[in-house]
Amino acid sequence: MATLETTFAGLKLRNPIIISSSGLTDSAAKNQRLYESGAGAIVLKSLFEEQIMLEADWLGDPNMYPEGSDYLVGYIREHKLGEYLELIKESKKVCDIPIIASINCYQNNDWIEFAKKIEEAGADALEVNILALQTDIQYAYGTFEQRHIDILSHIKKTINIPVIMKLGDNLTNPIALIDQLYANGAAAVVMFNRFYQPDIDIEKIVQTSGNVFSNESDLAKSLRWIGIASAAVDKLDYAASGGIHSPEGVVKAILAGASAVEICSVLYQNSYGTINETIHFLNDWMERKGMKNIKQFKGMLNVNDLNGINTFERTQFLKYFSSHK
Question: Are the beta carbons of 282 and 40 closer than 8 angstroms?
Fold first, then answer.
């Protein structure tokens, strides 16, 4: 009988399906339902540093509140953080699976000391998102990557629970960065975070939001880079995020080298029953292939020869176009 248990960031998961940070995970009641539906772990809705700071700064405008500016800034900040700590505590009460907190930060400052409170509230791990576009004309190459390392290093000095780094796909060389993240204490890497998708309404001539949800073709990016990274930096765990819209996608991610996957869009577009369907498919596939556990096929199709031809790069490119004449 196959077992679906896996290890991700030092956490034991009953299966590799992690619910990604989103509106699906913003309450203990929702998280309990996800747990009962079969999820292996849950990433709580992210706490956005930028959002808190903007709201606090606006309410703390000394021109609007000349006598209470500092008080209001502190109140908003602590109120938001307090709500998040309560979400962790309440979710832990009703979910007997790992609860992973999530923060979205963009600078390395004292604000990330809040990570210690997250640990004290009972979170099993912390996922850190540093999602930003680099558009400064005076940008110094490597500054963005160094920010990841600095924030991770700062957090690791503060807490003992595992730290997971969720990366955007706007990196020149994710492998070099992942190697440094591992050296600075990262327990796992998630590939990739999803950017806001812009669009333009040509009739109203205004900027609009593009498709909020990922699609199945997005998985290719994760497969490529996890396939390369899991061979090059094999001392930490990987999770695929974006484009997991079918049970087959879960198998593909694990074959590429992932220990787990993060899903979100597929749950919004379908139902929580998707989790159980995926579990059944994975179990049946493993039985058919004679796989007794996840480790047995994890990374089976990652890059085998890092010093030779990279099978996730030129060879696949040539095969693709040779078959389309």
Answer: no
